[in-house]
Amino acid sequence: MITTPFMFPLHMELYDYRRLTVHGLTRLASMHGFQVEQIDRLGQPAHVAATLIADLSIQPARRSPLVRARVAMLRMAARASVHWLQSDRNCRDIVINGNAYLGNGAVLRAEG
Q1: What is the pLDDT confidence band of residue 55, given thresholds at 50, 70 and 90?
Q2: Residue 57 and residue 75: Cα distance in Å, rounded?
Q3: Domain spans, the chain
Q4: Which of 60, 38, 46 is nearest to 106 (CA)?
Q5: What does residue 92 show for φ and ψ, rounded to 5 degrees?
Q6: 34, 112 Cβ separation under 8 angstroms
Q7: Count of other CB atoms within 10 angstroms of residue 84
Q8: 3-state SS, residue 32
Q9: What is the rounded CA–CA span in Å between residue 11 and residue 2?
């Protein structure tokens, strides 16, 4: 059983080499003598949006009080957006479509 990141902020820098789609993971498994028994995309589009917003670093470019106030408001909006997108209750009656997902979960079996 393995998981691989797909749509995720850069992490484990210097070692974050590859983002595999389900197709790439299936091909790589086959090239190394494994058969994919099951593979699932992990995370919904709302989770992807929350992950990417949470990773933002919002900093003032100048020391102006107006700029600092705008930065503070944007940070609050980002925190609220992440909280809202991660809440199953808030998204219960809303459909958010998209092709992005957070990762892959796969069950592999060695061939032979």
Answers
A1: very high
A2: 9
A3: 1-44+101-112, 45-95
A4: 38
A5: -55, -45
A6: no
A7: 14
A8: coil
A9: 18
Q: Between 19 and 64, whose confidence is greater?
A: 64
SS3 content of the chain, % helix, strand, coil (to 5): 40, 20, 40
- Residue 40 is encoded by which pair of tokens? 């699932």
Q: What pLDDT digit, counting tens, does each position of 76-91 carry?
A: 999 999 999 998 888 7
Our CA angle for 88, 44, 19, nearest 5°, is 145
Instruction: Tell me the whole-structure pTM to 2 decimals.
Output: 0.77
Given a contact cutoff of 8 angstroms between Cβ atoms, the answer to whether 109 and 2 are in contact is: no
Residue 17: both structure tokens together: 């080499």
- Residue 19, pLDDT > 80, answer no
Within 10 Å of residue 54's Cβ, how many Cβ atoms?
Answer: 15
Contact 86, 44 (CB under 8 A): no
Q: Which residues pair with 4 in a beta bridge?
A: 104
Residue 26 — left, alpha, or beta (φ > 0 → left; ψ -120 to 50 → alpha)?
alpha
